[in-house]
Backbone:
């Protein structure tokens, strides 16, 4: 093809057809430009196809993250609900008048002392932001993803702060009381130790620490349950938007 064009130009020059030569040259330039534009368009289409493939992969990862987070929230909520039932039963002992302090403390053995630090394992949103690929996501979805990620981080920090406070109180109580086995089994034949451990002043201080621990633990768990509802709602809303984008 190139040889043909070259031969054509040469013939026009040799025949001194200058006007036709320039017309032909201009036409040839136009064809070259059109060819370049077509090549660029094809290249752009190829780039767009690659970008769309990457975007689709991220969409699938986000939906999987949402699924995992939902399962995590449901399992953690069940554990928290179970603890709430135990805590409510424990608080009901205060409705009984003039109970010995020791009897109140002994009921604390029925409480759940585990601390549920909220910690989401999903990280696709964070990866999108770190790599800069967040720009591949449409603005409406992108903004909601960033808000969701920030709110999840705040939820984790809220949970950790309150549980850390609960842990401090629990540690103080454990240092004062030792353990259930220590108080109710190991020292039963040690009158002096029994007298100290079950001294009314010590029991009152111990009870205050137990109450502090459980109060901060419940504050953490109540807050987590409230925040879980918003996170689930936000994820569902984003999920709908992502599914619409994937069907385009």
Residues:
């Amino acid at each position: 093809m190139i040889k043909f064009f070259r031969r054509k130009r040469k013939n026009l020059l040799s025949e001194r057809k200058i006007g036709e030569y320039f017309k032909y040259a201009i036409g040839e330039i136009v064809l070259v430009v059109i060819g370049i534009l077509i090549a660029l368009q094809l290249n752009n289409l190829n780039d767009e196809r690659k970008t769309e493939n990457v975007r689709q992969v991220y969409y699938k990862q986000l939906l999987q993250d949402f699924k995992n987070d939902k399962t995590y929230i449901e399992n953690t909520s069940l554990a928290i609900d179970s603890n709430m039932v135990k805590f409510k039963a424990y608080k009901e002992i205060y409705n009984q008048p003039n109970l010995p302090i020791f009897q109140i403390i002994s009921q604390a053995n029925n409480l759940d002392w585990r601390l549920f630090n909220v910690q989401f394992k999903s990280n696709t949103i964070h990866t999108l932001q770190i790599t800069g690929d967040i720009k591949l996501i449409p603005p409406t979805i992108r903004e909601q993803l960033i808000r969701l990620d920030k709110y999840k981080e705040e939820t984790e920090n809220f949970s950790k702060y309150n549980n850390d406070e609960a842990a401090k109180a629990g540690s103080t109580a454990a240092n004062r009381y030792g353990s259930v086995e220590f108080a109710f089994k190991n020292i039963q034949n040690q009158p002096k130790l029994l007298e100290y451990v079950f001294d009314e002043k010590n029991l009152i201080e111990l009870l205050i620490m137990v109450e502090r621990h459980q109060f901060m633990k419940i504050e953490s768990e109540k807050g987590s349950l409230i925040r879980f509802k918003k996170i689930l709602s936000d994820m569902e809303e984003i999920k709908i938007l992502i599914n619409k984008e994937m069907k385009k």
In short: The radius of gyration is 36 Å.
